[in-house]
Amino acid sequence: MSSPHPPPHTPHTPARADADDDDFPFPVPKPDPSKANLSADEWVAELQQHPFFMTHLPSDTKSNSYVTALQEVLYDGTPDEIATNFKTQGNEAYRAGRSSYPDAITFYSKGIAASPTDSSLLSVLYANRAAVHLELGNHRSAAEDASRAVQADASNVKAWYRGARARLGLEDVVEAERLVEEGLKSTDRRGELSFAERIIEFRVCPWMSMTRNGREGGFWTLPPLPPSFGTSDTRALPTSTPKLDPANAPIITLRATIESKRADLLAAQRRREERERVENVRAQMVERALKDRGVCVLPSSASASASSDDSHSPAPDLPRPTLDTTTKPATLRLPVLFLYPEHAQTDLVQVASEHDALADHLDEVLAESPPWDSGGVYGAAKVDIWVQVPLDPPGASASGGSAWASDPSRTRIVRVGRDRTVGDVARTKGLVVWDGVLSVVVLPKKGKFTVAFLKAFKERVM
């Protein structure tokens, strides 16, 4: 006999496993008994295989079905939808901090590669990538992206601003100033909106103005509603152009920064030009002093080739003759190079007055026995000083002129007395002070090397 009361109705709740997998952008994981007893570290590592818990993409994305499914979702839609998706991810990576900046650049680049048809969206992608490059100090890349951004949408004030910042980072002040002015013109184009359109933007969408407050785009101060607004009054609505609030406009601040930078660069340029002018005057005075004293200074072949237009190598970094104008009359000072051909060694005296005895400088250099003088034959009283004089002297007129064309190997060697001054030696008839450095040869008074060395010079001139 049937019961007079029907059995109570129990609603059927489908199990989670009964859900349609197609409702999810990635496969629903199935229970895996082998992972029931994972340690805490293993469990965390397992969780990080899921896109929701990932801190970075795996190197092999194809091996992760979740990531593969998400990537398919990313590229599913119109070009504008795909680009918008990548822009959102790029913004999130940018907000995550400096360590995620490379990811932000990658996302913005993928958004650009999607070729959105919305020019303003394309402009934002370029401008946002420029912002990341600015944070990384890549001013050249930032400038290029900002330029592409304004090409896509000339009303993108942030693009003009970031382009100006990038050019300022490159110390291209002129271009930075131009971009700031163009950005301000772009901002002023908002005045082309009708008053009613501006009321709609401000009153109906107040969040739109709030998001601009304090940002790079500035905050627009709008006139108050007229008394006739919303009534039957048909008087013409005011069409005054809104003004950018300077207190909330970084582009205005940037213009002031650029002007300050321009002033700094101009001051630095003036200082540099003044230094060059002073150096040129000093060089002319030294050249005149050398000529008046009959000292022939010519560039060596190595120096001439290094400073020629066909070579990018710098001229040898050698000390140069100077003129001490604090004395009356002015004193010429020359660098002196002592050569020891027996041991292929040299000693350089940076500054020697023309009135100093050459032997005094040598005695100071050889006051302590050099480490290479194992025989102890280079004592101050055991050596002679010699100079090499060309057999075909260029003549006094060559001082300060072009390089000497004669064969420099054709020289004779002349002994210099210990009482001779630096100026006397430099004025030796026919002597060339190569590159402004007075070179002298130091030989032991006795010894096989000295005999052979002098004999070679005698044979050379015969």
From TrEMBL:
One biological process term in Gene Ontology: protein folding
Gene3D superfamilies registered for this protein in UniProt: Tetratricopeptide repeat domain
Region Disordered, annotated ranges: 1-36, 301-327
Boundaries of every Cns1/TTC4 wheel domain copy: 329-448
Comp. bias (Pro residues): 1-11
UniProt GO cellular component terms: cytosol; nucleus
Signal peptide feature range: none
GO molecular function: Hsp70 protein binding; Hsp90 protein binding
Pfam families found in the cross-reference section: Wheel
Keywords carried by this UniProt record: Repeat, TPR repeat
Matching InterPro entries: Csn1/TTC4_wheel, TPR-like_helical_dom_sf
Name of the protein in its database record: Cns1/TTC4 wheel domain-containing protein
Organism: Gonapodya prolifera (strain JEL478) (Monoblepharis prolifera)
